[in-house]
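Schema walk-through. Below, the input block comes first and the output block second. Nothing else is stored per chain. Lengths vary across the set, and this one has 232 residues.
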Amino acid sequence: MGRQPLHAIDRGNPARLWAESRPLPPAAYQPSAAEVAPTLLGHWLLRRLPGGVAGGRIVEVEAYLRDDPASHAFRGPTPRNRSMFGPPGLAYVYLIYGLHHCVNAVCGPAGVGEAVLIRALEPGVGLARMARRRKQPGPGNLTDGPGKLCVALDIDRQLDGANLCDPQGELWIAMAEDRESFVNDRGGIEVTPRIGITQGAELPLRFVLKASHGPSRAIGRKRGRRRGTRVS
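--- output ---
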């Protein structure tokens, strides 16, 4: 039996979910972070946890480019950012403020140094496991921020360099064959400046599903998010 579209699988059976979902191939992370970022919206970020799979639909991302002053790759490779230089389809995981982890999908040709930050998910599977990790009683606000989703999915520096295209791995981005309808149902894709940064903040490199309940809206309001452009 071939692998099935993720939306067609019984989500009450995490083992089957993990076995039959399909990862995006390395080619999906080409040619650049700016072009890849909006195409990741609506697909699944999945994590294998004790007792089963957890994860959700990607609903907010930001692109970080080769010559981008806000990017960790701006000054070239270091031991900390080595994974960001590829090959495409790796996870780049880093720690900010000594407290919060963030997970990125590496994009573009090896050696370039581009990535897409996964900013928020709409929880879809393993909600009880994620809620326990977040130490909260229900599913609300589980993954509406890059640090929150990493806590919920137990993503830390040990997963830096993980192959997001490996169906046998611990972390991957899985194909949602109903992506187009999911994106449309949530109001399409809106493009805005990135948030939470001081350099390159004017660049329109944040992509968000406009009507999803998952994005980190509180952060956007706090920093005076400007009106975006709807692209789909």
